[in-house]
Amino acid sequence: MAKTVYDYWFIQFDFPDKNGKPYKSSGGKMTYNEVLKRKIPVGWKVGELRNYLTSNRGVSYNGKDIAGDGIPMINLNSFNVNGTFKIEGTKSYSGEYSSSKVLRPFDLVMCNTQQTALDPKKDIIGKSILVPDIFESEVVSSHHVTTISVKDYNLKFYLNSLFNTPYFHQYISGYATGTNILGLNFEGVLSYLAEIPTNELLLKFSAIVLNVEKQKSRIFKENQQLTQLRDWLLPMLMTGQVTIG
Prior knowledge:
Radius of gyration: 21 Å
Helix content: 25-40%
CATH superfamily of the largest domain: DNA methylase specificity domains
Structural class: alpha+beta
CATH class of the largest domain: Alpha Beta
Low-confidence stretches: none
CATH topology of the largest domain: Adenine-n6-DNA-methyltransferase TaqI, Chain A, domain 2
Largest sheet: 4 strands, antiparallel
Shape: globular
Oligomer: single chain
Strand content: 15-25%
Mean pLDDT: 91
Number of domains: 2
Distance between the termini: 40 Å
């Protein structure tokens, strides 16, 4: 749903106008932007993303740091190709970390490394996710993940959708370098010229996406509880300690 709204509002420019009608289709005013060489809605801005965000790479680790029990660590394997969170990819980290590396629910994080050659069907480099609200303890990310902090909270949800568009992914893939392991030059993100919608529109969009993300987090938790219950019951069912009536 969030992707559909993003496409409708920010690609087709048919976000609700003051009368609740589709903006562009209803004759909303557009203005030609000399930088982008195309028309955008009146009131929108255009600028490099370096003006709107800062970045922070995650924790560097070695084998012993992820060998035992610890806190959850978001890493390469936490990203699905479609830009969603893969819960089974979470590692357990037992090493040291500073408070600046701790992630909070719905923080915006981007994959900055890929261990395979670029392939549109497998690419995760440059993909972003919003950290789900499912962890009972503190959670960190590995150095293969970059946390992106925005100056305007509501802009975060818009950027997450932008980062997972085919257009942006094709663009950012040009900033991936290396042989066996590809690394992302974050300058590609910082120098990206983005259309920045009005604060009012960003607020409306963030409310929609945040509601979706909260529902997803609730489902994640319910699935985890059901999995634990299954794992507890299955051995007893197999040994005949319990039966299903």
